[in-house]
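**Fold tokens**
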Amino acid sequence: MFKIGFSLIAGFVLLVIQSFIVMKWNGYSSIAFNNTFDIFTIWVINFFLVYAITFDQKIRFWQKDTSQ
């Protein structure tokens, strides 16, 4: 439950950071997403990225605990 909540928040933070990077590189003052589906799609991709990273870390810690 914690990983899902953390992944949702971190996915949104990544979306904002990615938007700022694109604005800086292209010299834009704002980004206009065409519809909410675009924002939702990027958010979901970032969610699964963060979730996969946190899941991978849990497996590594679990493997260290069981190998002793």
Summary: Residues 2-67 form one domain. Residues 20 and 44 are 18 Å apart (CA to CA).
